[in-house]
Amino acid sequence: MLLHKQTIQPATAERRRFQRVKVHLLGRYMLPDRREFPCQVINMSPGGVAMLAPGIGNVGDRVVAYLDHIGRVEGKITRIIDNGFAMTVGATPRKRDKLAAQLTWLANRDILNLPEDRRHDRIVPRNPIAVLVLEDGTRMSCRIIDMSRSGAAIAAEQRPPIGSQVFLGLVQSRVVRHLDDGFALEFVHEQLEETLEDSVTAR
Questions:
Q1: pLDDT for 65-94, tens place per residue?
Q2: Which residues of 79-88 are buried (b: 16+ CB within 10 A; e: fewer)?
Q3: Among the residues of 18-121, which ranges form H helices?
Q4: What b-and-e string marks burial along 175-198, b requiring 16 or more CB atoms within 10 Å of the CB?
Q5: Where would one find coiled-coil regions in this protein (predicted)?
Q6: DSSP classification of residue 147
Q7: For 172-203, what is each residue's pLDDT tens digit?
């Protein structure tokens, strides 16, 4: 009888067994019609994930996603949320155990305030004012909070969509995260330390 109960109530058992953790991961996902979109995970457990997403399918749709630090996950949309959706994660018990370990590490990294990229020292430029060119060619003034050879944190009134391609000065970049007062950029190509400041503040 116990086995029978588990087979008809997997979602309830899953909610009890897995605790969702807040993580900020970027990725891409594909809907059944094969359209692909960028996404940002806002919380996740080994049994489910909630994400911000520009292309929202229907409840019951199958989704295949590729997430930074996690890899491929697939499942079905369970509910629609503001600007995104929640989905199940279909996985073997062994894969779920691995996911639980990955999520624990990612959650601790966020608590310890270790952003994705600490490969390079972050610096504050002497002249923090820069020009950002958006995908549609719009130019906007912004302030560089700090930067490294591989990315920058930007303070600005307008926040471009996550995943959009922009230019910070002469440097081609991608918006990877929204911050309280701006957004984070990842440079498409790693920059040289000696020319970094001139490149990002060029007009």
A1: 988 878 889 999 999 998 899 999 998 888
A2: eeeeebbbbb
A3: 93-111
A4: bbbbeeebbbbebeeebeeeebbe
A5: none
A6: E
A7: 999 988 887 789 998 988 888 888 889 998 88
